[in-house]
Write a structure and sequence with these properties.
By secondary structure, the protein is α/β, with parallel strands linked by helices. Helix content is 41%, strand content 15%.
Length: 428
């Protein structure tokens, strides 16, 4: 990685406020590279090809000793000290005021509403009369997550405290506190970038006056290289792949409830779950999952794979007979998109914006999130593969998703949004 590259002049100056340090900058801060937020990195790489814009980064820092500003990979970067994201602090506002004073920004692009630093940036922008230059990209919505966090989990697990000393009930209240800041942010926003009917409905319910722009996300580059490569004859028959299982809103407990029905018909069924093995954690949700696994005798049917890089994820997508997304709330699932572009047959809970991306019975199957029997039914239907069902869904899905995740088109749309906001700001 070569840092301290020369920055060009005479371009539209864009400031990105991110929730994480993007992978391209992790070495600069001497932290382990994360594969989170791949849509931001993918968009950044596409926008780097545009000569008319210059993007600077603003990153949250949790260790005061890592606070610094500089230049890395041709991008200026700024940092601010962040807490647990639940409260908008005076310190964060003041940090953003200094960043806003550093340049004459044409656009401030905030990635996500979920954390309190979004509100802090908006307050800082308000002080300098820059609110008409701010656009917020909707990722998840904390106030909606709070409503669904309980997810049919029995009360004894819901209120229990283990390990960290935090109960799921307290975790839900943390989302509620973040949601208060989030709602205030949305109310004070003029421009929003979203990508599903669900996020548009949620945003306009809070702020009917907001100007909503549609722009799809971009997947990590390597997934386009392997588009349409899933093959039924090469997959592990009766296998299910899930991308996350570590917290309640991903609904892994619903999949566990569906498994006995699936195993009854297909005894060799096996679930592969990406991410850390939650069963080793001393947490209430883990205790609930363990109780289900023990009750239904599922231990031999589940493998936790650990954290996977891009190529490992592709391997397990390609190996799977079926990809399952059993979330209880979701704006849009990047994991679902990854499975779709590869051509993996998908079963997805009908939540959030899922129906905007899956055409039921043509590109996959949708089911009510709290109906594990129906989840089991559709998985078994794919396992049966009558009349080459898996192949037909695979071909349709891999083709249909392309129009939502086209890298060049989505990058062009983003630049056009910047231009429109800049033009409107110049009029005021």
């Amino acid at each position: 990685m070569t840092c301290h590259s020369k920055i060009g002049d005479g371009k539209m100056k864009i400031l990105w406020l991110c929730n994480i340090i993007l992978p391209d900058f992790c070495e600069e801060f001497q932290i382990k590279k994360s594969y989170l937020g791949g849509w931001m990195t993918a968009m950044l790489h596409q926008l780097e090809k545009k000569n008319e814009i210059e993007i600077s980064m603003c990153f949250p820092i949790y260790d005061r000793n890592r606070l610094k500003d500089g230049v890395c990979n041709g991008h200026k970067y700024f940092t601010f000290l962040c807490d647990f994201h639940e409260v908008c602090t005076v310190q964060m506002i003041q940090a953003f005021e200094k960043i806003l004073e550093a340049e004459q920004w044409d656009i401030i692009h905030i990635w996500g509403t979920e954390f309190a630093h979004t509100l802090a940036m908006l307050k800082a922008c308000g002080k300098f009369g820059l609110l008409n230059k701010v656009v917020i990209n909707i990722q998840g919505l904390a106030f909606m997550v709070a409503k669904h966090y309980r997810a049919d989990i029995p009360k004894e697990y819901w209120i229990a405290k283990q390990g960290s000393g935090t109960s799921m009930e307290e975790e839900q209240k943390a989302y509620e506190r973040r949601g208060v800041c989030e709602i205030e942010s949305i109310k004070n926003t003029q421009y929003v970038i979203g990508r599903t009917d669900w996020d548009r409905a949620c945003i306009q319910a809070v702020n009917p006056k907001v100007q909503y722009f549609f722009c799809g996300e971009i997947l990590r580059e390597v997934f386009y290289k392997y588009a349409g490569t899933w093959k039924y004859e090469k997959c592990e028959k009766y296998s299910i792949f899930v991308s996350q299982a570590t917290y309640p809103i991903k609904g892994f407990h619903y999949l566990l409830c569906a498994l006995p029905y699936i195993i009854q018909q297909y005894p060799n069924t096996h679930v592969y779950a990406a991410g850390a093995n939650i069963l080793t954690r001393n947490e209430p949700y883990a205790a609930y999952l363990i109780s289900l696994i023990d009750t239904f005798r599922l231990k031999s049917h589940i493998t936790f794979l650990g954290l996977l890089d891009e190529m490992q994820m592709i391997h397990y997508y390609q190996n799977a007979n079926v990809f399952v997304s059993s979330s209880v709330v979701e704006n849009e699932s990047n994991s679902l998109h990854e499975a779709q572009i590869l051509g993996v047959p998908c079963v997805c809970s009908y939540v959030g914006g899922a129906y905007n991306r899956i055409v039921h019975e043509m590109g996959g199957f949708l089911y009510p999130h709290d109906e594990p029997v129906l989840l089991a039914y559709y998985v078994c239907k794919l396992f049966e593969n009558k009349d080459d069902l898996c192949e037909r869904l695979s071909l349709y899905s891999a083709h249909n998703i392309q129009k939502y995740i086209n890298p060049q088109e989505n990058a062009d749309t983003t630049v056009n949004i910047y231009r429109k906001i800049q033009t409107e700001a110049e009029k005021t």
